[in-house]
Give the backbone structure.
Amino acid sequence: MFMTMQKLLSFLGLCLLVFLATNALATDIPKLKPGLWEVKMQIEGVPNMDPVQQCIDENTNSVMQQQVKEDESDCKTMVVNRAGDKVTIHSECKLEEMTIISDNIFEGSFDSAYKGTIKTHYNPPRDGGMSETSMTLEARRLGPCQPGQKPGDVIIPQ
């Protein structure tokens, strides 16, 4: 599957938004430990991507949670289950005229590292006829944010 860079970035932004939203929404999911986090994502049908890094602090976690609560009205279903270090999330949301159904599994401590799979169905299909996506991710805390980084800063390799 070939995507233009603009469509790829738009798609990655949507995937990241769905991940952050579902991660931040559930009160059963612990907040990420403050510091510099690295996330490696692999999206089925998309060439390997370099890791993304984000500086997280308590306020960044709270801002993400508040944003999701404000957008929650667009989600008619949000089911979260937690058993030990495993969290599953099922959501059905509306984005303009599109229905997005997402099934997510996250495993790990959220203090230092976690893994996740996100399977998403779009109806009607996204630009280019994309009706389903499957993404895996691995995240790990690298330590404190680097000097000069501000909470919320995202580093995307060029």
Observations:
- The first helix runs from residue 5 to 25.
- The first strand starts at residue 35 and ends at 43.
